[in-house]
TrEMBL record:
The keyword S-adenosyl-L-methionine applies. The keyword Transferase applies. Keywords: Methyltransferase, RNA-binding, S-adenosyl-L-methionine, Transferase. This is SAM-dependent methyltransferase. Pfam families: RrnaAD. GO terms for biological process: methylation. One of its GO terms (molecular function) is methyltransferase activity. Gene3D superfamilies: Vaccinia Virus protein VP39. InterPro entries: KsgA/Erm, SAM-dependent_MTases_sf.
Length: 201
């Protein structure tokens, strides 16, 4: 039923769902393998979908670590609300990752250690991708990480315009096989550092 629902959402919303099946457990393991679960306090997940990565985060986190999920698909949002209704320190927001600063203020989250993303940047509008990544650099602490996956490496140059270090790995045990991008801010920049008009996808 979960796979059927995911396929249906892909057919109805191909630009925002981005895949015909949920991510594999293998990909989930690769997405969170670099997270230091002893020291993290705040984790954000963009586009959690059915919660494949979320499940792994919850199992490994400290019980008081805050996880904020941002989902803009109504069906997935409703599924997540029901699924995690009894979990402490899990907040679920229906909306766009572009507005992440607003959501952090709402839940009194001062900064973010890790942002995990399932968003399909290859199909998102350029201005939306720019806004999401720019705002992500603002909320991440120094040396914080943005971890995402894509099905090609075509967006690596684009990610390089926001992050000072990117490690790329491949996970073949997923359909389709995926690239994992571990993006780090080694030195925080002011907003003026980024000229949005000159950022290209």
């Amino acid at each position: 039923m979960k796979k059927f629902n995911f396929l249906y959402q892909f057919i109805m919303n191909p630009k925002t769902v981005g895949a015909i099946l949920p991510s594999s457990s293998f990909l989930g393991d690769r997405m969170i393998e670099k997270i230091d679960f002893k020291d993290e306090k705040y984790i954000v997940e963009y586009g959690p979908g059915t919660g494949v990565f979320t499940e792994k985060l919850i199992k490994k986190r400290d019980p008081k670590t805050v996880i904020l999920l941002v989902e803009n698909n109504k069906e997935f949002y409703s599924l997540l609300k029901e699924k995690y209704k009894d979990e402490d320190y899990i907040f679920i927001e229906y909306g766009s990752a572009e507005k992440i600063e607003r959501y952090l203020k709402k839940y009194r989250i001062p900064y973010v250690d890790y942002v995990i993303s399932g968003l399909p940047f290859a199909s998102l509008p350029k201005n939306v991708s720019n806004e999401i990544l720019l705002n992500t650099t603002k909320i991440l602490k120094e040396n914080g990480q943005f971890i995402t996956f894509q099905y090609t490496k075509i967006k690596k140059a684009f990610f390089n315009q926001f992050f000072t270090k990117i490690d790329v790995k491949r996970e073949y045990r997923n359909f389709p096989p995926a690239y994992i991008f571990n993006c780090t801010i080694l030195k925080k920049h002011t907003e003026e550092y980024y000229d949005i008009k000159n950022i290209n996808c």
